[in-house]
Specification:
The complex is a heterodimer of chains A (114) and B (115). Chain A is mostly beta strands. Chain A is 0% helix and 49% strand. Chain B is 0% helix and 53% strand. Classes of the chains: A mainly beta (114), B mainly beta (115).
């Protein structure tokens, strides 16, 4: 069990560019979550997958954001036409099947939009 | 919608002493989970302790214990024999048993441990 991994760990981009982040969950975890954390705040939920199905999306997830989880394994989060307000830490978490499964977090991807 | 409030932005404790972090939440549900997560500086978030709302007994994990008051919607974390490695941001989080699986986090409490 190598834990949840995220790539890249840091991303600096210019306003208006597109960025894509990847999350590899713990193997056999069928649930995957994306959260966004701004400085000094708690994480805010963005979206949730069970296997390959995206079951819930937050209102925070504007049309510029899209997430996928093909084949129910790794997931990608893409932000199009980035804005300075998108600067944040993007956290991925995974959990095993069942209501009681706890969420294991990855190290996050820190996005800076200049 | 559920909300989680942590009213202490920052707390300090002397090494080997005990500290309590506060958390209150708002929900209309009767069954749910509550968690405390620890986020050390520049490191990933890890689960400290969890509590199922249907359990009356307060959860304990080594030096960490909770005081769960369901009627008051209060969920505090007590850290005994504080160690330098306990210094981190601590988040209280809520998860519904019925509606989705997302965690709802509070704003966090920075815990500083003095040697």
């Amino acid at each position: 069990d190598t834990g949840v991994s995220q790539d890249p760990r840091h991303k600096i981009t210019k306003r208006g560019q597109n960025v894509t982040f990847r999350c590899d969950p713990i193997s056999e975890h069928n649930r995957l979550y994306w959260y966004r954390q701004t400085l000094g705040q708690g994480p805010e939920f963005l979206t949730y997958f069970q296997n390959e199905a995206q079951l819930e999306k937050s209102r925070l997830l504007s049309d510029r954001f899209s997430a996928e989880r093909p084949k129910g394994s790794f997931s990608t989060l893409e932000i199009q036409r980035t804005e300075q307000g998108d600067s944040a830490m993007y956290l991925c978490a995974s959990s095993p099947p069942g209501l009681a499964g706890e969420q294991y977090f990855g190290p996050g991807t820190r996005l800076t939009v200049t | 919608a559920q909300t989680v409030t942590q009213s202490q932005p920052e707390m300090s404790v002397q090494e080997a002493e005990t500290v309590t972090l506060s958390c209150t939440y708002d929900t209309s549900e009767s069954d749910y989970y509550l968690f405390w997560y620890k986020q050390p500086p520049s490191r990933q978030m890890i689960l400290v302790i969890r509590q199922e709302a249907y359990k009356q007994q307060n959860a304990t994990e080594n030096r960490f214990s909770v005081n769960f008051q369901k009627a008051a919607k209060s969920f505090s974390l007590k850290i005994s024999d504080s160690q330098l490695g306990d210094a981190a941001m601590y988040f209280c989080a809520y998860r519904s048993m019925e509606y989705g699986n997302k965690l709802v986090f509070g704003a966090g409490t920075i815990l500083r441990v003095k040697s």
